[in-house]
UniProtKB/TrEMBL annotation:
Keywords: DNA damage, DNA repair, Glycosidase, Hydrolase
PANTHER family named among the record's database cross-references: G/T AND G/U MISMATCH-SPECIFIC DNA GLYCOSYLASE, G_T MISMATCH-SPECIFIC THYMINE DNA GLYCOSYLASE
InterPro entries: MUG/TDG (IPR015637), Uracil-DNA_glycosylase-like (IPR005122), Uracil-DNA_glycosylase-like_sf (IPR036895)
Record-given protein name: TDG/mug DNA glycosylase family protein
Uracil-DNA glycosylase-like domain sequence ranges: 4-149
């Protein structure tokens, strides 16, 4: 199993489908070499430098946490069962209610549709959050399989960086 990185007072909780086999073996989020997550965070301005998957716990210091809707590592999301999604939805909601991050960032539209049970969603901030007072943000998956350019993906994640920077100015 891969540990969650959770704490009260997070700016952003990044929520994935489930860990890759590589992440399961290493115990770190977004560890598969083809995953672009860490480069996206740096290029969007969310992190001051390029972090490595082995440093995922260090991002708690920046106010960022990690979890997944399903905890079991698989080769692909098609290996996740309906029962695992149903259980994961409940567990994720409990985590959100307990830790209350400013933003729940769903890394992939499919993660959000599984969680919210909404059929159509757009990139970015969502109206009518499932857990009130927690902003919900849908970002593209960082998988190398995504058919969007890196620039398009970074532009969407940059909205998060802008939000965090604005909130930090207000505090």
């Amino acid at each position: 199993m891969i540990p969650d990185h959770l704490d009260v007072g997070l700016s952003i909780l990044f929520i994935g489908f489930n860990p890759s086999i590589t992440s399961g073996e290493t115990g770190h989020h977004y560890a598969y070499k083809g995953n672009r997550f860490w480069r996206i965070l740096e290029r969007s301005g969310l992190t001051p430098r390029l972090y490595d998957a082995q440093e995922d716990g260090e991002l708690l210091k920046l106010g960022y946490g990690f979890t997944n809707i399903v905890a079991r590592p698989t080769r692909g999301m098609e290996d996740i069962t309906k029962e695992e999604y149903a259980e994961g939805r409940q567990i994720l909601r409990q985590k959100l209610e307990k830790y209350r991050p400013d933003i729940a960032c769903f890394v992939g539209k499919g993660v959000y549709t599984q969680y919210s049970k909404r059929a159509k969603v757009q990139w970015g901030f969502q109206d009518d959050p499932v857990v009130k007072e927690i902003q919900e943000f849908v970002a593209p998956s960082s998988s190398g399989l995504v058919r969007m350019s890196m620039d398009e993906i970074v532009a969407i994640y940059s909205q998060l960086a802008d939000f965090v920077a604005e909130k930090n100015r207000e505090d």
